[in-house]
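=== RUN LOG ===
request id: a7f3
mode: sequence -> structure
chains: 1
length: 273
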Amino acid sequence: MNYYQKHIGDFNNATRHLSRIERSIFSDAIELYYDTEKPLVSDIAKLARLLLVTTTEEKTALKLILDEFFVLKKVGYFNKRCCEEIEKYQGYIDQKSRAGKASAKLRSIARSSTVEQSLNDRATNHKPLPLPLPLPIKTKTVEKTFQPLARLLSLKVEPQIARDWLLIRKAKKKPLTETALNKIINQAKKGGYTLQAALTISCEEGWAGFDPSWKHSLNGGGEEKVVKVAWYASEDATQSKGIEIGCLRKDSESLGDYRERIQQQLSGVNYVR
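=== RESULT ===
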């Protein structure tokens, strides 16, 4: 113990009958008790040296003090009041120690929370990363589909001739393409024909294409045998051709469908190119 509470009234009441030397030795004995926080040693000679008791009078006073205020036990000279004060002091120190440890723990937690909050603040104070630029939307390029009939009509071909000629190509399984049409246009110009005139001849002859030399083959003969089929010229001619080959027109059948059936039935004859 670094200090103890000395109740002057209690001390005076307990020591009023003592001499000045006895009071002084008693006071020193109590202070030694508190300083070591344990009973006084039972060895009188050793205790006397600790209390600086040297003279015979002082040694006699020490013996008197020990007999009146202390009880000799195995651990040494025991004083009830001193033991109670020491227990209170130790309890206070222990409580203070626990409170200090608890306070230190709280401070540690507080520091950790502060550091964590600081890190969070730093994280949240960062400027947000710029959003990635949206990728350009790829638009599908819609290719214009080649429309044979519309293309022929745009080239001033009569609707009926255009449809009839396309039926011939369909029966021949030769769908019209832009490339094929451009070739026919060039062949017509080469022979001095308009596209309308060239396709009219093709319909009359049942040709899927056109070449000026074919017209000469019809007029002058040649190695290639060409069967002239003029049944596309009119509805009557179509009806006659159907009767000729035994392909009769069905009720409510359109002229186009009827011509297509005739063309399919004639597909085995080498009458067109």
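=== NOTES ===
The CA atoms of residues 8 and 79 lie 18 Å apart.
The first helix runs from residue 8 to 15.
=== END ===
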